[in-house]
Write a structure and sequence with these properties.
The complex is a heterodimer of chains A (162) and B (192). Chain A has 162 residues and is mostly helical. Chain A has a domain at 99-162. In chain A, 59% of the residues lie in helices and 6% in strands. Chain A has helices at 39-80, 87-97, 100-141, and strands at residues 4-6, 9-11, 14-15, 33-34. Chain A has a two-stranded antiparallel ribbon. In chain A, a hairpin with a 2-residue loop joins β1 (4-6) and β2 (9-11). Chain B folds into two domains: 1-132, no CATH class; 135-192, no CATH class. Chain B is 85% helix and 0% strand. Chain B is flat. In chain B, α1 (2-49) packs antiparallel against α5 (108-131) and α2 (58-72) crosses α4 (95-104). By secondary structure, chain B is an all-alpha fold. Classes of the chains: A mainly alpha (162), B mainly alpha (192). Chains A and B meet through β1, β2, α1, α2 and α3 of A and α1, α2 and α3 of B.
């Protein structure tokens, strides 16, 4: 296989099985032969890299922007009360609003979230144990079996993360 | 005094919601997408292992590589990227054609199975894009009444066929004509 296809783009064109490891080769067999993309492919990769940068910017702005917006609104609200209320009064007001049903709801929500995180950790641990076993079995049937190159626990590789 | 308390509570709730969405829900959605694609890849592998097609078939290798690629980059499947890529145009060097040519070499049964897996993989991706975007939820919510209205219209036509409404119409016409005839004859009598 020469590459992978993502949204019509061919990336990571690597051929490590090449027997050519002579002195005329581009490397001495110490690293995989990376076939350079032709100009058309290079143009395509460059074009999509630009789109990726735009998309990454959007994906950064939306979550962090929303968090900043929450704090800005809070700051403006508290700022209007400057000089009229002390921080202690604001704190008391916040705690005064906490009724028993709200506290129970927060505890319930927090417990569920924690449970979810622990379940996820358990699933990843299980995946980590099973993936090597499954790969070994599948390679017995198809020795040239290709992989998705995820981490052992099925998560995104750190170098692929944006 | 109470207003500021309520505002702080709402802000606190929003921050908690933000944590749940970005540290709980979003990673779950990526894992879920990967799981659905792994299932399709396993189905493809089992088809080859059962002898339905060969591991050396280029169609098998192309489809497996594509599934592997999307599994690896599942975290990049978003509405923003879909829209940007769509605006820019997608096909490069006829990769889609390569796939279709490879599939065309297979027997009908093999081709059908591989195209089915390919189609389901596409559906999984579309579902991921649609279900993860609040913009799409709003768009979908706006479209639902239209779909319901269209379905209701079609259902009415079907129901009319099922209930044989034309027979009621025919009965009404017969009755109408009979009544009309009776009225006319009584008018003749009155004139006479």
């Amino acid at each position: 296989m020469t590459g992978i296809w993502l949204f019509g783009a061919e990336y990571a064109i690597i051929d490590s099985s090449s027997p050519d490891s002579s002195y005329n080769a581009r490397n001495l067999g110490t690293a995989p032969n990376v076939k350079l993309p032709n100009p058309k492919q290079a143009e395509f990769i460059l074009k999509y890299k630009k789109l990726d940068i735009v998309a990454d910017a959007v994906h950064l702005i939306v979550p962090w922007g929303s968090l900043v917006a929450i704090f800005v609104l809070l700051y403006l609200m508290v700022g209007r009360l400057a000089g009229r209320m002390t921080m202690a009064q604001i704190g008391v007001s916040f705690l005064g609003e906490m009724r028993l049903p709200s506290v129970v709801a927060y505890i319930f929500g927090g417990t569920c979230f924690g449970y979810g995180l622990r379940e996820r950790r358990l699933r990843r641990k299980k995946t980590s144990g099973m993936s090597s076993y499954m790969t070994a079995l599948e390679q017995r049937i198809d020795p040239r079996r290709t992989s998705s190159h995820l981490t052992a626990d099925g998560t995104t590789r750190p170098e692929d993360e944006r | 005094m109470n207003t500021i308390g309520a505002v702080l509570n709402v802000a606190f709730g929003l921050v908690l919601l933000w944590i749940v969405v970005y540290f709980g829900w979003r990673p779950y959605r990526i894992d879920n997408l990967r799981q659905r694609l792994f299932e399709l890849r396993d189905e493809l592998f089992l088809a080859a292992a059962d002898g339905e097609l060969s591991f050396d078939d280029s169609a098998y290798q192309i489809l497996r590589d594509r599934l592997n690629a999307v599994i690896r980059f599942a975290h990049t499947v978003t509405l923003t990227r879909s829209v940007l890529y769509r605006l820019e145009g997608t096909d490069v060097e006829g990769l889609r054609e390569k796939w279709l040519q490879a599939v065309a070499k297979l027997s009908d049964k093999q081709r059908q199975h591989l195209l089915d897996i390919d189609q389901r993989a596409s559906f999984v991706l579309v579902d991921q894009v649609f279900s993860g975007s609040p913009i799409m939820w709003v768009a979908l919510a706006c479209c639902i009444p239209v779909f319901v209205w269209q379905e209701a219209k079609e259902a009415k036509v079907k129901a009319a066929k099922q209930l044989r409404v034309e027979q009621i119409e025919a009965q009404a016409v017969i009755k109408f004509k009979r009544e009309q005839g009776a009225t006319e004859s009584s008018a003749h009598l009155v004139r006479a």
